[in-house]
Amino acid sequence: MRQTIERLRAEVAAGTWPVGSRIPTEPRLVEAYGVGRNTVREAVRALVHAGVLECRQGSGTYVVGTDELAGAVAQRVTDDRLGEAVEVRRALEIEAARLAAIRRTEADLAALDGALAARAAAWRTGRADVFVEADAALHTAVVTAAHNAMFAELYASFGAALRASVAAAVGPDLRPDRYVDHDRLVAAIRAQDPTRAAEEAARFLNHPSRN
Q1: Which residues form the HTH gntR-type domain (predicted)?
Q2: Pair 23, 17: CB distance under 8 Å
Q3: Count of beta carbons in the 10 Å neighbourhood of residue 56
Q4: DSSP character string of 101-163
């Protein structure tokens, strides 16, 4: 069974089934892995217990985290702990912005520009769920530009908490007074100004209604 657990875990980590998606049905996994039904069932159960998968009655089994750390964080994100999530975001994103300003490449700038444009376009759709994903993608691009693999892995595990905090900030309806422009953050990274980049990252995380 251990091999089946590791194979399932590897598929999730590789993004074969992205966070939020449903994994194949039990019969399909049995066929794909060449193991018994009980083996697949126990392997899925183990990853559910670890917080990587979630079984939803009548719907199937879904990916809720890329690894055990992500699952553990996701399980702890509740309404009364969103303040803690924002504090963790500050610790991670301020330093990421500072490092990104020092280490960014031309390829990073292109990725940041694309993510910034996608974020603005997502806001114009009027759909909160679309905007949350686009906002998270921009912040992830900043972390990527910091060029610290361990930092990036840790931030990836924080994905569920990040999205929850952004969703709480913007609310179910996108209102103009809740929009926070991130142009100055990207501009500071482009200018290779670590102090200003850190200040910009801190600015929109100082208030619970910011994202």
Answers
A1: 1-66
A2: yes
A3: 9
A4: HHH--HHHHHHHHHHHHHHHHHHHHT-HHHHHHHHHHHHHHHHHHT--HHHHHHHHHTHHHHH
Do 90 and 10 share a domain, yes or no?
no
Tell me whether residue 209 is in a domain: no
**For the segment 23-65, what is each residue's pLDDT rounded down to a tens digit?**
999 999 999 999 999 999 999 988 887 778 888 888 889 887 7
Structure tokens at 40: 């697949």
Tell me the C-alpha distance between 56 and 127, whole Å.
25
Same domain, 195 and 110: yes
Q: Which domain holds residue 9?
A: 2-70
Residue 210 covered by a domain = no
Among 70, 61, 159, smallest CA distance to 53 is for: 61
Give the pLDDT of residue 188.
98
